[in-house]
Specification:
Chain A: It comes from Arthrobacter psychrochitiniphilus. Chain A: Keywords: Antibiotic resistance, Membrane, Transmembrane, Transmembrane helix. The complex is a heterodimer of chains A (about 260) and B (about 350). By secondary structure, chain A is an all-alpha fold. Chain A has eleven helices and no strands. The longest helix of chain A has about 30 residues. With about 350 residues, chain B is α/β, with parallel strands linked by helices. Chain B folds into two domains: about 230 residues, Rossmann fold; about 60 residues, 2-Layer Sandwich (Alpha-Beta Plaits), CATH 3.30.70. Helix content of chain B is about 25%, strand content about 30%. Chain B has a six-stranded mixed β-sheet, sandwiched between helices. The chains are: A mainly alpha (about 260), B alpha/beta (about 350). At the A-B interface, helix 1, helix 2 and helix 5 of A face helix 2, helix 4, helix 5 and helix 6 of B.
């Protein structure tokens, strides 16, 4: 056994692409094996979709229920995975020193963040496939241009919510991250205009909601997937939230 | 190869006027190449601290050290002395306030993946995700290196196989420690940082881990470890830096620290047990005291010399006393450490230390 270290090859990092892909695969696997995360990422959005399609909540808007519900539920998937799921996972990784240890390996801090982004995108892709299949089964037929517009907007939304989730995970204790991101999920989902178009219910609520990242992403997705239209205001608001959260996260994120 | 502790021969081979570049242990010469790690005048402030009205707290004020390949270099100090902060600055995990650090010739704060691959780190708190399973995690970390050590061999070597598929949160402290050590070794690093490596280890794991550390040293690695356990330093370290209140206050091989300190630290003691209330006057001489701490238990303390033992023998014979136990306390690293911490040994700034093979009560 004494040859274990004597005859070994000198230390060298794997290539950058391999390090990041390895980390992304590992993080995605960890997310998808976690039961609580699966409830948040799959069960809740599916239940939301079914509730909206089988109740008259969205009636009177000039479109089939599923056509209004599906874009909002896809936006909810980005919120679940990027904000709540990744926020909580990162908060506890930070508590247990995982972030510090991994940043001493060839992966480094940049690779760690890149791995998390990949994990979010992989999980989100699986959610999109699942939700879209169920919605299609219930009669959803989005226009092709709308789909091509919706995919990059959903990725942008995931990026903005990842930045917000990491900002919270990197600045407060993991228990507080757990509370804030779960509460945030409930408020954004119920009142934040992500699933339900706020304009339908109250104009004063809509006045607030259109400034929120949740309302912006919900409106962007509905405009794209119902009317094949780019909601410029929503895009500006979402970009502003994403950039501000990313700058704040870079500035205040604590690794330990 | 044995450690340069009591009983083994430590000898410096220094060409006059030239920095020493090799060391002999029991006759075998080990080359020490360029230093793996050089720290000079490290300063680290943390904060702002609310208890200090929002001011910064200086946790490291002046630490200098050099760690060589093929040696175990220990930072010895009480909890809170600044050991972990020092090695985290050396690992690039914390940004320093002042001073210089050269790790494998580079500044650790701007370390690239190439440098990080050559440095293994075992953190004090492990840094392992609780939900992960040890072997799966090790395979993942191995994937970050171009030519990692075989995971299976390392798993066997550290006895991880027996809990290979148990999630990390269910492992004992010692088991976690072994997984963290394996993770730090996967890349076959040239420099290895171990923060309190024996914390939480049961006696069998401790022997296993210590043997591995010696093996790594013999393979030419530079090993830098922190410990608050004097026994660890005495057993493992080729070179010790004593850290106190954020400063490196003394350094040397264990033997050098013991030898040099004997001039200022001659407090030895002999304890013996015999019948109560004996007349011990005949044992005494100036600067030697004898007290009966409890009936029949005596402590003879002071600067003991061989003649004191001879006098003790003839005293026993004359009084027809057969002690039930006699114990001679020899000086340990603990005495040195305590003496330095209490300020009874001379101290000076450590920044002039350039030659780690030369004893420096600095």
């Amino acid at each position: 056994m004494s040859t274990l270290f004597h005859n070994a090859a000198p230390a060298q990092p794997a290539t950058l692409a391999r390090r990041i892909l390895n980390q992304g695969r590992y993080e995605a696997g960890t997310m998808l094996r976690n039961g609580e995360q699966l409830v948040l990422m799959v069960v809740m959005p599916l239940l939301g979709l079914l509730a909206l399609v089988f109740t008259p909540l969205l009636d009177g808007m000039g479109h089939p229920r599923v056509a209004i519900a599906a874009p909002g539920i896809l936006a909810l998937c980005a919120l679940s995975t990027a904000f709540t799921g990744q926020g909580i996972a990162t908060g506890f990784d930070r508590r247990y020193g995982v972030l510090r240890f991994m940043s001493t390996t060839p992966l480094g801090k940049g690779g760690l963040i890149a791995g998390k982004v990949i994990a979010v995108l992989v999980s989100l892709a699986l959610q999109v496939v699942l939700i879209s299949a169920v919605a299609a089964f219930m009669g959803w037929r989005p226009p092709l241009i709308g789909v091509l517009l919706g995919i990059p907007l959903l990725i942008l939304g995931a990026a903005a919510f990842t930045a917000l989730g990491l900002l919270i995970a990197g600045t407060v204790r993991p228990e507080a991250t757990l509370a804030i991101t779960n509460l945030g999920w409930i408020l954004f989902a119920a009142l934040g205009g992500i699933v339900l178009p706020a304009a339908k219910f109250s104009s004063s609520l809509d006045g607030i909601v259109q400034w929120l990242p949740s309302g912006a992403l919900g409106n962007l997705m509905r405009a794209a997937l119902i009317e094949s239209r780019l909601d410029l205001w929503g895009l500006l608001v979402l970009l502003a939230w994403g950039v501000a959260a990313a700058i704040a996260a870079v500035k205040w994120f604590k690794w330990n | 190869m044995s450690l340069p502790t009591a009983g083994s021969t430590v000898r410096k081979i220094n060409a006059p006027g030239k920095a020493p570049n090799c060391f002999a242990y029991n006759g075998r010469v080990r080359k020490t190449l360029n230093p793996a790690l050089i720290i000079r005048g490290l300063i680290k402030d943390v904060g702002p601290v609310p208890a200090l009205d929002g001011r910064m707290k200086r946790v490291v004020s002046n630490i200098s050290l050099t760690a060589h390949f093929g040696q175990v270099t220990a930072l010895l100090g009480a909890n809170g002395a600044g050991k972990t902060t020092t090695i985290e600055c050396a690992q690039g995990l914390q940004t320093r306030t002042g001073g210089q650090i050269s790790l494998l010739g580079q500044d650790p704060e701007t370390a690239d993946a190439g440098l990080r691959a050559r440095v293994g780190v075992m953190l004090q708190d492990g840094g392992l995700p609780p939900a992960a399973r040890p072997v799966a995690l090790l395979h993942h970390v191995a994937g970050l290196y171009a030519t990692p050590l075989p995971v299976d061999a390392l798993v066997d070597r550290l006895g991880i196989s027996e809990f290979a598929d148990t999630s990390i949160r269910r492992l004992s402290g010692g088991q976690k420690q072994r997984v963290a050590l394996a993770a730090s070794l996967l890349g076959n690093p040239e420099v290895l940082f171990l923060d309190e490596p024996s914390a939480g280890l049961d006696p069998a794991s401790r022997i296993m881990v210590f043997e591995l550390i010696r093996e790594l040293r013999d393979a030419g690695k530079a090993i830098i470890l922190t410990t608050h356990l004097l026994d660890d330093a005495q057993r493992l370290a080729d070179y010790v830096y004593i850290v106190d209140k954020g400063e490196s206050v003394a350094s040397g091989t264990v033997q050098e620290l013991l030898q040099t300190s004997t001039e200022s630290l001659r407090h030895r003691a002999m304890t013996f047990e015999a019948s109560p209330r004996l007349d011990v006057t005949a044992l005494l001489r100036p600067q030697l005291e004898c007290t009966e701490t409890r009936p029949g238990s005596y402590v003879l303390s002071g600067q003991l010399e061989p003649s004191d033992l001879a006098r003790f023998g003839s005293w026993c014979q004359r009084l027809d006393v057969m002690p039930t136990s006699v114990h001679l306390a020899s000086q340990s690293l603990e005495d040195v450490f305590l003496a330095i911490s209490e300020g009874s040994m001379p101290q000076a700034p450590a920044s002039s230390e350039t030659n780690p093979q030369t004893m420096g009560i600095s």
